[in-house]
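DM from R.C. (forwarded with permission)

"hey, sorry to bug you on a friday — could you get me a structure for this? deadline for the figure draft is monday and I only need the backbone to look sensible"
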Amino acid sequence: MFVLNIKKNIMKIPVRNMKFNIFILSISAIFLQSCKTATPIMKIESERAKIDQIDQQVVSLLSQRMNAAMTIGQIKKENKIEVTQPGRWNEVKNNLRKKAIESNVNPDMILKMYQVFYEESVKQQQDLQKK
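My reply, with the result:
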């Protein structure tokens, strides 16, 4: 019950306090690990709370990424530059693959995710070109 109450309260804190949220989650995780009465369900809830916070960060970062892509799209439009830049996309993929391997994350999964981000960025930039 303690963890569930903590989770509910943390989720009410705005994203701008993310470092504080992570601090609180870390404290609760330490508490749960040291508490001999912590049930597996409590431990799972603690880990799920961490995932929820990370998901919020990911969405916030993707929003920032899309905003940057749209700024680039506006610059391309103003200067009559093609939307797609294959050399840049290849560079991004190579960097992502390298970083995924260094981080012990499946590079194919990362590349699939970023393919979706790339396609959405291109679509939005193309729509911007038509305006």
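R.C.: lifesaver. The first helix runs from residue 2 to 11.
me: no worries. The two ends are 53 Å apart (CA to CA).
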